[in-house]
Amino acid sequence: MSQPSPFPEPDPEPTEAERYPTLTAAGRRMLDFLKEHPHAPLYRNQSGNHLTAAEVAQVRQFEEEVAAARLDWKPDAPPRWRDAFVARTYAEVPHYRKLGGAPARFTDIPPVSRADLSHDLTAFVPDSAPLERMINFRTSGTTGHPLLLPSQPVIAASYLAFHKRALRRFGVTLLAGSGEVGVVLLGMQKKCFTYVSVTPSQNEAGLVKMNLHPDDWRHPDDRALYLDSLKPEVFAGDPISFAELLTLPLNWRPRALLCTSMALLPGLRRCLEERFACPVLDLYSMNESGPIAVADPATGGHVLLQHGLYVEILNDQGEVLPPGERGEVTLTGGFNFCLPLLRYRTGDQAALDFSGPEPVLLGLSGRPPVRYRTADGSWINNIEITHALRPMALPQWTVHQARDGGVVLHHSGDSALDGPVRNILQALFGADHPLEVISTSFPEGKIIQYTTGLSDPAAHPAPAAAPSGRSSEPRIQSGPATR
Amino acid sequence: MHRLTAVPPDFLDEPRIGTRGTVRVDAVVADLIRHYGGVPEAGRLTVFTGQDPGRERNRLAIVLLLAWLTADEWFASHGVPVEALLSLLMEAPPELARQTASPAFLTDPDRREEITRLTLARLDFRPAGESPAQAQDRLTSLSATERARVIAAARAGELRARAIREALAKKAADESADKYTRE
Predict the structure, then answer these.
(1) If 0-12 CB within 10 Å is exposed, 13-18 middle and 19+ buried, where does residue B160 land?
(2) For residue A74, is pLDDT > 90?
(3) What is residue B31's DSSP assignment?
């Protein structure tokens, strides 16, 4: 007799009613348009908004709250919600409950890092977080700790409230609604999760997550034709997918570009702004917290976006640094009620500035994109390595490409994995590419996961010439930044 | 027990561990040893400093409560050997910290009684009017009740953790929900 599996079976494929609980005939038409378009790419996956009507109303109300919120806290006058948040977290979150009562002084709360979450994520999920509608977001693990983070559909949908707040700084109010495409999320990877959906809080404006890699298209020329046909209000992506977007003979001009995931270099930003004649928002965002800040050249830094997120800058010893001093960005609060953050060290560096009406992160250095040259001269990015290594049980790893092209991967997993890991890398880089896989232990502290000694030509991309005739103009010309 | 309802704020403040907290617990213990006529030895006090706030804060907070309790004149007038005192401060807090968060020794009457009886027992005293067997029975009963509560809570915690892991794992790898951007 067969034994029952100790592992939970994945949920059966959700039905369309589960993916789009409030779908109308107009929403249905949008999904069909996106999928059945003659130039559409191959959509490899399915997802949806999963929002009930009550949750859609909740999201809209949250958008109003975010739009009206003021971020007027200072180091000596923290936000009013902070103490109650600390008390609730110590009462409801197992990790903190185990520590005893909350310290009287906020700064006596021991900070946590991604390594703590990675060690036992369940200890950071509050007792009150409902499990029935829990979803997950997988992080790429740029600091060496890949994670499956808990969330809910309503939390995912709430991101838009902060995007709208960020866009308003640049004079853009999102208008896309029924029968229009709100956003196209762009990837540029050999393997990418792609799907179509609609956004109910935007009257079912279309949402597309696509891969610009030619392998996902019947013909590479279809990319520009399809995007021109969709006329999305916003493109979202990372510097690598935007660099690819620049090479396409696109006529359409979106109203804004939202750049996340990696540091956006000023040169690429300028190229994008000139090419698409719209604001390019460099968002500082992470799965643990959602959108944290948006770069605003008028402030010289990244302006904080969340009124429910308190930010400190800590030194290596965990001591709070005064405004102007550079250290580790550390977060408390957030809108993910499945993962309340309490002095969460992000691994990113910046200084806080309070000279304006809202707190600003100066000199933010996030996680720069790293690309690697393969044996045939093509380039892959670090996310592809992370994706390829997913099946491997590697707690932590680093990858470095030397100036001669040789690649070395150090990992803290079992040495028996050396062979399988090497095979994966060989498939990515090419059969003859010089590779080394070394199992090792990482000393205490942070690591820089992806590094290279090679010079990357994408750092100075040469954009394709803009086509001479525009098939259509942007619906509304974006105004200047508000500050 | 009454003394635990009037702990001065200094004894409730955050134990100093690394760069966090304010109260030097080793210094408090050194004062207590002097109070009982002993000479504190630095080497024996290192156990009252911590390295990891996450793991040692609760233990050191309980040391402070015991220090306040045993500084009572009643103990001083009945004579407490310094060695017994040190044993109490070194051995009892780790046991108690495993089961109980320090604030409960102030707010929960049963826990107040438990820590008081444990202190008396370890210093070879017992409450007035009780035989040794009665005192031991009551302490055992209090500890067993707490242990049972802790075991039940731990079991509930394990079930919850498993439910969270299953809820996360049950979702198809990337079948999540729409966001306008992806990190």
Answers:
(1) middle
(2) yes
(3) H
Closest by Cα among A327, A319, A347, A410 to A114: A347
Whole-angstrom distance, CA of residue B92 vs CA of residue B87: 8
Burial class (CB in 10 A: 0-12, 13-18, 19+), A137: buried
**Cα–Cα distance measured from residue B15 to residue A375, given in angstroms and rounded to the nearest whole number:** 57
Number of residues written out for chain B: 183
Using DSSP, how many helices (H) and how many strands (E) does chain B show? 9, 0
Which residues partner with A327 through β-bridges?
A350
Picking from B53, B170, B172, the nearest residue to A110 by CB comes out as B53
> For residue B19, which phi and psi values (nearest 5 degrees)?
-95, 0
Token output for A102: 């909350």
Average pLDDT over residues B134-154: 89
Residue written as token pair 């409801």: A92
- This complex has an ipTM of 0.80
What is the residue whose two structure tokens read 């134990």?
Answer: B15
Per the CB < 8 A criterion, the answer to whether A420 and A393 are in contact is no
Contact list in A for residue B178 (CB cut-off 8 A) is: 47-50, 156-157, 197, 199, 207
**CA-nearest residue of chain B to A96?**
B54
Which DSSP helix (H) or strand (E) runs through B75?
Answer: helix B73-78
Alpha carbon of residue A36 to chain centroid: 28
**What one-letter code names the amino acid at A151?**
S
DSSP character for A85? Answer: H
Give the number of C-alpha atoms closer than 13 A to the C-alpha of residue B44, restricted to the C-beta side.
Answer: 14
* Neighbouring residues of A482: CB distance < 8 A, sequence distance ≥ 6: A168, A169, A170, A171
Helix (H) / strand (E) element for A182: namely: strand A181-187
User: C-alpha A387: how far from its chain's center?
Assistant: 15
Start-to-end CA distance of chain B, whole Å, equals 55
Q: Which residue has the tokens 């060690």?
A: A119
Phi, psi of A268 (to 5 degrees): -70, -40
Beta strands (DSSP E) in A212-326 are 234-237, 256-259, 280-286, 290-296, 301-304, 309-314
Inter-chain CB proximity A318 and B19 less than 8 Å:
yes
Report the candidate in A137, A118, A256 with the shortest Cα–Cα distance to residue A193: A137
**Number of other CB atoms surrounding residue B126 within 10 Å:** 18
In chain A, the residue whose alpha carbon lies closest to the alpha carbon of B159 is: A122
Helices (H), A409-455: 418-429
Contacting residues for A35 by C-beta, under 8 A, at least 6 apart: A43, A196
CA distance B67 to B101: 17
What's this model's pTM, rounded to 2 decimal places? 0.78
Query: Does the pLDDT value for residue A95 go beyond 90?
Result: yes
Angle at A174 (CA atoms; ends A172, A176), nearest 5 degrees: 140
Contact B168 A286 (CB under 8 A): no
Q: Which of A11-15, A40-44, A277-281, A305-309 has the lowest mean pLDDT?
A: A11-15
Rounded Cα distance between B97 and B55, Å, is: 10
How far apart, in whole angstroms, are the C-alpha atoms of residue B14 and residue A103?
A: 6
Cβ neighbours of residue B5 closer than 8 Å, sequence gap 6 or more: B106, B112
Cα–Cα distance between B20 and A311 in angstroms, integer?
19
Residue A406 C-beta-side C-alpha neighbours within 13 Å:
7
Facing residue for B178 by CB, picked from A7, A11, A47: A47
Alpha-helical runs (H) found in A12-150: 16-19, 25-36, 53-68, 82-92, 94-97, 114-119
Position A409: which residue type? L
Band (A201; pLDDT cuts 50, 70, 90) = very high
